[in-house]
Write a structure and sequence with these properties.
Largest sheet: 2 strands, antiparallel
Number of domains: 1
Helix content: 40-55%
Shape: globular
Length: 174
C-alpha cells in the first residue's frame, strides 16, 4: 500500500482513507531525503530539523495534518514528535516523487526555498520562527516580529533575521 498526498492531505493510495501514522512518517522520510535533510532523532539538532522541515513542507502545500504551536525553538508539533519516535525506521524512506504535478511543483519550490540550509538547524529555526509569527500575527510588522524572535533567542541577530525575512519574502511567505 503506497502513500501519497491527495488534495494536499496525506492519504493512502487505495481508497483515500487517512494515512496511518507509519505511512505518513514514510512520506515525510522520503521528502526529507529529497531535500537532503538528515533528521537524526538521537540528537536535538536532528529533531529540530525534522520539526522545521515538516513545518515548511506544510507551508508549501504538502499537508500531513500536523498543528504547529509556538514553542521554545519556534513552531513545534508534539504529535509529529510522537509519530517520528514511534516510527523511526520509516524516517529512513528513500526519496520520493509525487504523481500529482502540482505536488511535485510544490516540492521543487520547497527545495529551492530551503536550498543549502536543509541541515542548518540555526537557519531552519529562525526561518520557521519568523514565518510562523507573521502567520499568526499578520498585523505585526517586520521589525516587531524580528524583535520578538531576537529577544526570545538571543543567538539570532537582527542582520541574519533581515536576510532570512527577505528570503521568505522572495517566496511570498511573509
Amino acid at each position: 500500500m503506497s502513500t501519497q498526498l491527495v488534495n494536499g492531505q496525506c492519504k493512502l493510495a487505495r481508497g483515500g482513507q487517512p494515512a496511518s501514522m507509519e505511512s505518513k512518517v514514510q512520506v515525510i522520510g522520503g521528502v526529507l531525503r529529497k531535500i537532503g535533510a538528515h533528521a537524526n532523532l538521537d540528537q536535538f539538532r536532528g529533531r529540530l530539523i525534522l520539526q522545521k522541515s515538516v513545518y515548511f513542507m506544510q507551508v508549501f502545500g504538502l499537508n500531513f495534518g500536523y498543528d504547529f504551536n509556538w514553542y521554545v525553538y519556534g513552531p513545534y508539533a508534539s504529535n509529529l514528535a510522537h509519530d517520528a519516535f514511534a516510527n523511526t525506521a520509516a524516517l529512513k524512506e528513500k526519496s520520493i516523487e509525487f504523481a500529482n504535478p502540482a505536488f511535485e511543483k510544490n516540492m521543487q519550490l520547497l527545495m529551492q526555498f530551503i536550498g543549502k540550509h536543509a541541515n542548518d538547524d540555526h537557519w531552519m529555526e529562525l526561518a520557521a520562527s519568523l514565518h510562523f509569527l507573521k502567520k499568526i500575527n499578520p498585523k505585526y510588522t517586520k521589525p516587531q516580529i524580528i524583535e520578538i524572535v531576537t529577544n526570545k533567542q538571543t543567538h539570532f541577530t537582527r542582520d541574519e533575521s533581515e536576510r532570512i525575512w527577505n528570503h521568505l519574502k522572495e517566496f511570498n511567505l511573509v
